[in-house]
Amino acid sequence: MLLSVARNRVSVKRQKTIFASVTPSSASEVVSVTSQPVTPCTVLIELSTASTGTIEVQGTDSTGSSQTETLSFSSQVIQQGIKTFATVTQITATDLLG
Fold it and tell me: What is the 3-state secondary structure (H, E, C) of 44-92?
């Protein structure tokens, strides 16, 4: 019984900050970062329509070390990163023209 309950666990997290909201106008576009996370967090990217391409997030972790995470889309709308970012310095959208 306990194994069954653990397997069906659902995590719900409140999103604290929207870094940017933009419609890419070229095959590779650097997106302006308008704000920073309140606390270190993972990045959730949501597209308005399913698309194929990548989003590269650059920033720092909680120790101040530089890091990059690339999220690949293949006909999805949402991708959740696994790296924790204290700051986000740049977001690059590639081939997400729809």
Answer: EEEEEEEEEEEEEEEEECCCCCEEEEEEEEEEEEEEECCCCECEEEEEE
